[in-house]
């Protein structure tokens, strides 16, 4: 979203309204966050005018710290330039006063002009100096801004990349990431606003100083002129911010609808199923909510602005009235009165500017504040960088009575799981859909920690381990492995992102996985970009991607290879080849964990664990699990069902080979 989009984000105060039909149907309810969430997550909605104003020094501090980290020299240049400008403005006012005194003094016009000439020269020189300083400061600000944005972005991205997977799946953390994304952009703009605030403050101090010297009563009047604008600007900033925050998720969802309409993967279904009008209709439904809120904000802005203008008008009349009275009663010289008018005009312009810039600063700083909150939260939820060292090679990895529930899930996904993965063995995990196989692999590599029980590498519990070392030992082809929108070479080489990509190693890994043939057929070989929608980008099939994914895992060359349904999209020959390769690796001492529904492929596994509803219900070698003496277990049943499909012609209505593992709580007949 752009800044403009943010400003027009869907609206706020809907405590009494209901979710729109689109929200209800598509997302199951209201997408706005209720106040409970905000209260729970701290002070970001406590936006009283006083607290907003009191927060300004801290906000300027944040911007200055970021700028200091980004480019110290540019920061000092801006500071010196703005300070110099303020000084020139103050001295200019004094010189103007002297000029007016000379011009309004007794004597002939020639004499008065001659007397005023030095002051005139001073005013002219100061004006030139002021312009030069302004340009220098503007240039340094321009240099500083993108650097500040980069520093802020890098900081939060680096932190977010290290948080526990659990945090990434937590919608409250997502909400924080949504709002924090604006923080980096806001930090960039804050630099400009800070500069402008400093400029306005300095010129205001100059004007106020001159006014106080001219007559002390003028200063409070100047402040009275400024207060209404300050109030209206801050009030509207607060409304906008609260509104944006309450609807951040709604805005994201509305954008999602727009994106889905042009999404490449959805394109086929959008056309064949005619999903376009459906999505567009709901896009309109979501937009209606947004527009209603914008209308509310617009009217609130108009009312606030009108009230502020009225109050400012009264204060202006009062100010000039007092000035008139002072002149009328001879408490002030005419020349001094002229300077006072100039000082009031310059002071009130500075105040208006100051208020506007402070409001902008305030608004941006709220988002920078979110960025700070995200950084703090990301640090709190980071995967610890320390812990017990994990040996390069461990004799076994063990699950001891492991129970695990995904955050927010109503039921545990693993219940009292015990299993052992001996070094150099191939261990297969089989079971129905949702039985917990992938969850076991995620706990195995330390992406999640058990709620109960232990996952132990050698004698090191993953909960105490230096988990980066566990990650280091793992090569994984997850079920939903990532299809990086980069070249084929990078898609394989990214398996070891810390090292330069080795051509030979990439070729060997590709050959291992059968991806060499895929690459050979690409127009630019390994240099082909595997992303449609970019120039020269190419799309490959699901099975071809799977080969690339396998090649990536091979290239990573981890001590433990986890392959989660590695052949689901492969043709029979490719599938056979992959399993042969995996078993050959096992022969070379590689520890492999294989998750699959293809039961014939686990014949050669050293150990098979059968999971059902989060529990290990059977385990043993293939022969043990198939031994009729041990009774008809889940594995044997499923295996025979699959085998029968190959032996007998298909019967109408017969379930597929995984039926014994996929039907809800039933086993095959
Ligand atoms: N990120 C998640 N958040 C919440 N629940 C999840 C998450 N991932 C999986 N689950 C739930 O945990 C249970 C086990 O899922 P898991 O992916 O481990 O099953 P699986 O045996 O690998 O299934 P499949 O054969 O379909 O891949 C399921 O009930 C699933 O709905």
TrEMBL record:
<feature type="transmembrane region" description="Helical">
    <location>
        <begin position="190"/>
        <end position="211"/>
    </location>
</feature>
<dbReference type="InterPro" id="IPR036640">
    <property type="entry name" value="ABC1_TM_sf"/>
</dbReference>
<dbReference type="Pfam" id="PF00005">
    <property type="entry name" value="ABC_tran"/>
</dbReference>
<feature type="domain" description="ABC transmembrane type-1">
    <location>
        <begin position="184"/>
        <end position="363"/>
    </location>
</feature>
<keyword id="KW-0067">ATP-binding</keyword>
<keyword id="KW-0547">Nucleotide-binding</keyword>
<dbReference type="InterPro" id="IPR039421">
    <property type="entry name" value="Type_1_exporter"/>
</dbReference>
<dbReference type="InterPro" id="IPR003593">
    <property type="entry name" value="AAA+_ATPase"/>
</dbReference>
<dbReference type="InterPro" id="IPR003439">
    <property type="entry name" value="ABC_transporter-like_ATP-bd"/>
</dbReference>
<feature type="compositionally biased region" description="Polar residues">
    <location>
        <begin position="660"/>
        <end position="669"/>
    </location>
</feature>
<dbReference type="InterPro" id="IPR027417">
    <property type="entry name" value="P-loop_NTPase"/>
</dbReference>
<keyword id="KW-0812">Transmembrane</keyword>
<feature type="domain" description="ABC transporter">
    <location>
        <begin position="397"/>
        <end position="638"/>
    </location>
</feature>
<keyword id="KW-1133">Transmembrane helix</keyword>
<feature type="region of interest" description="Disordered">
    <location>
        <begin position="1"/>
        <end position="22"/>
    </location>
</feature>
<keyword id="KW-0472">Membrane</keyword>
<feature type="region of interest" description="Disordered">
    <location>
        <begin position="646"/>
        <end position="669"/>
    </location>
</feature>
<protein>
    <submittedName>
        <fullName>ABC transporter ATP-binding protein</fullName>
    </submittedName>
</protein>
<dbReference type="GO" id="GO:0005524">
    <property type="term" value="F:ATP binding"/>
</dbReference>
<dbReference type="InterPro" id="IPR011527">
    <property type="entry name" value="ABC1_TM_dom"/>
</dbReference>
């Amino acid at each position: 979203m752009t800044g403009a989009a943010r400003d027009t984000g869907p609206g706020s105060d809907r405590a009494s309204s209901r979710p729109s039909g689109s929200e209800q149907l598509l997302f199951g309810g209201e997408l706005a966050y209720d106040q409970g969430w905000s209260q729970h997550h701290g002070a970001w909605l406590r936006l009283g005018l006083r607290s907003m104003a009191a927060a300004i020094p801290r906000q300027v501090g944040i911007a200055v710290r970021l700028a200091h980290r980004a480019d110290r020299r540019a920061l000092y240049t801006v500071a010196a330039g703005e300070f110099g400008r303020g000084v020139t403005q103050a001295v200019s006012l004094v010189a103007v006063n002297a000029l007016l005194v000379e011009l309004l003094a007794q004597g002939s016009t020639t004499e008065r002009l001659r007397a005023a000439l030095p002051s005139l020269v001073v005013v002219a020189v100061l004006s030139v100096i002021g312009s030069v300083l302004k340009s220098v400061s503007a240039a340094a600000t321009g240099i500083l801004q993108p650097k500040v944005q980069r520093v802020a972005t890098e900081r939060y991205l680096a932190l977010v990349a290290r948080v526990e997977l659990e945090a990434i799946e937590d919608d409250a953390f997502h909400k924080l990431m949504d709002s924090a994304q604006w923080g980096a952009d806001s930090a960039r703009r804050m630099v400009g606003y800070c500069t402008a605030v400093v400029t306005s403050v300095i010129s205001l101090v100059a004007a106020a100083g001159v006014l106080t010297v001219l007559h002390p009563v003028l200063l409070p009047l100047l402040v009275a002129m400024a207060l209404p604008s300050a109030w209206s600007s801050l009030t509207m900033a607060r409304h906008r911010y609260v509104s944006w925050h309450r609807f951040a998720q709604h805005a994201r969802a509305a954008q999602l609808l727009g994106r889905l309409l042009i999404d490449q993967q959805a394109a086929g279904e959008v056309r064949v199923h005619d999903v376009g009008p459906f999505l567009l209709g709901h896009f309109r439904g979501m937009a209606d909510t947004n527009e209603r809120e914008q209308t509310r904000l617009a009217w609130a802005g108009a009312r606030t602005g009108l009230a502020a203008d009225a109050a400012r008008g009264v204060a202006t009349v009062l100010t000039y009235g007092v000035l008139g009275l002072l002149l009328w009663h001879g408490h002030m010289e005419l020349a001094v009165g002229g300077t006072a008018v100039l000082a009031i005009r310059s002071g009130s312009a500075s105040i208006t500017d100051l208020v506007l810039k402070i409001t902008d600063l305030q608004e941006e700083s709220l988002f920078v504040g979110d960025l700070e909150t995200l950084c703090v939260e990301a640090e709190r939820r980071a995967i610890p960088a320390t812990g017990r060292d994990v040996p390069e090679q461990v004799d076994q990895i063990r699950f001891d009575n492991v129970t695990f529930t995904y955050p927010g899930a109503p039921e545990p996904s693993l219940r009292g799981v015990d299993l052992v993965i001996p070094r150099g063995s191939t261990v297969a995990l089989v079971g129905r859909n949702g039985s917990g196989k992938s969850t076991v692999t995620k706990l195995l590599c330390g992406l999640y920690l058990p709620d109960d029980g232990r996952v132990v590498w050698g004698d090191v519990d993953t909960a105490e381990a230096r988990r980066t070392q566990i990650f280091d030992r793992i090569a994984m082809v997850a079920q939903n492995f990532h299809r990086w929108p980069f070249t084929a070479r990078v898609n394989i080489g990214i398996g070891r992102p810390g090292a330069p990509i080795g051509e030979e190693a990439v070729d060997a890994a590709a050959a291992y996985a059968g991806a060499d043939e895929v690459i050979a057929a690409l127009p630019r070989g390994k240099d082909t970009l595997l992303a449609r929608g970019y120039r020269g980008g190419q799309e490959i099939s699901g099975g071809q991607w799977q080969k690339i994914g396998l090649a990536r895992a091979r290239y990573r060359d981890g001590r433990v290879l986890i392959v989660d349904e590695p052949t689901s999209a492969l043709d029979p020959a490719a599938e056979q080849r992959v399993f042969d390769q995996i078993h050959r690796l096992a022969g070379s001492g590689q520890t492999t964990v294989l998750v699959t529904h293809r039961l014939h492929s686990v014949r050669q596994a050293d150990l098979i664990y059968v999971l059902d509803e989060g529990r290990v219900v059977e385990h043993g070698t293939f022969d043990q699990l198939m031994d009729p003496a041990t009774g008809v277990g889940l594995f044997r049943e499923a295996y025979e069902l699959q085998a029968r499909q190959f032996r007998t012609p298909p019967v109408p209505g017969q379930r597929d080979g995984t039926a014994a593992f996929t039907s809800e709580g039933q086993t095959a007949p």
